[in-house]
From TrEMBL:
This is NCS2 family permease. Keywords: Membrane, Transmembrane, Transmembrane helix, Transport. GO terms for molecular function: guanine transmembrane transporter activity. GO terms for cellular component: plasma membrane. It comes from Ferrimonas aestuarii. It is a multi-pass membrane protein. The keyword Membrane applies. Belongs to the nucleobase:cation symporter-2 (NCS2) (TC 2.A.40) family. Azg-like subfamily. It comes from the Bacteria. The chain crosses the membrane at residues 36-53, 65-84, 91-108, 114-136, 148-172, 178-201, 213-239, 259-282, 336-356, 363-381, 393-419, 431-451. InterPro entries: Azg-like (IPR045018), NCS2 (IPR006043). It is found in: Membrane. The keyword ATP-binding does not apply.
Amino acid sequence: MSDVQTAPASGAGTLNQKLDNFFKITERGSSVRQELIAGLTTFLAMVYSVIVVPNMLGAAGFDQGAVFIATCVVAAFGSLLMGLWVNLPMAIGCAISLTAFTAFSLVLGQGVSIPVALGAVFLMGVVFTLITVTGVRQWILNNLPAGIAHGTGIGIGLFLLLIAANGVGLIIKNPHDGLPVTLGAFTSFPVIMSLLGLAAIIGLEKLKVPGGILMVIVAISVLGLIFDPGVTFHGVFALPSIENSLFGTMDIMGAMSPVVLPAVLALVMTAIFDATGTIRAVAGQAGLLDDKGQIINGGKALTADSVSSIVAGATGGAPAAVYIESAAGTAAGGKTGLTAALVGALFLVLIFLAPLSYLVPGYATAPALMYVGLLMLSNVAKLDFEDFVDALAGLVCAVFIVLSSNIVTGIMLGFATLVIGRLFSKEVSKLNLGTVLIAIALVIFYAGGWAL
């Protein structure tokens, strides 16, 4: 009898040990339970993408059912690759900003057909991957000055705060003359839930309650189901529709036309700095840097998100990238690839459980994103104000990421400020050739009007 009773525990112990050994969980100061909680937290923070991406591409004429499946497949592939191969807690999915460019600029704006647009995404992924595997992207990462590296983290933190606050209506576009944003409906249910949720997360994290962020997301989702008419139960299971599938419909030759090729290059250039900056910021926030300040398994991480864009073009999705929302999982304790692998597995399951994605309203995950944004502001303390030019260039990068709502814009202005600042401060000796070349390339990219 005792053998029967202890068998499950023994089996569970063996599985935990295998996971621990494979993902180096104990070595990185985590636990299987903590990694699973982090994975679920990240998944819930980014599950909105399976609604937003199909809606955006649907407005451009894509079949929404086909895009839903493609979005899940891209997120599953990219996150599993990041988890099982790279062993980092970063989830990958169809990038919202690049989705918007594909739908509204490429298809609706330039009149490019859907197959050609998918060919452009595929081609962008191929070029992006070539740049990554040849070491160019790692070279860019290695030549990221300390101030701009920390400034990117600060800026992304501010950006997350703005995205979350705007998403729930706390901060809205100003309909009157003056500054571009203003306070929204402070007494609305989404805003109240978001602010209460943020305060609850801060309190629970102070007490180091395991899974505190996830608990708040689930609790607010339940309250939304009870009190918010907009949150309704649509069922649990739904067979995916394979009608009008976009798998393999890309037109690569069409994407090589002189009309489309500049858009492909713009996508590549944007992804290089946007996704690279995000990976660096999330890794830094999770403490996953080596003693030289470089990302652990950084080369593999960069390859994983670029390869995912190839899959996106082939399956009918939008360009892929590491999601900023991954920081919600690292804030919940995720330190290994088990976090990302769970996200990937859940996106595979979601293909058959699509109705459940509507049970997590935006104001349930907004508190987690706000909390992560606040945590990332701690990068200010890492700026070395003894090196005044470097520190201030980092702050320029941070501020203009949020003011322009564009990570690459902030990075470009940060690099330009650093190089010019070094010249005027007579600190040319502190510049290296890589930093100067990156600054020139970014300025030309913007001055030429190719920036997204």
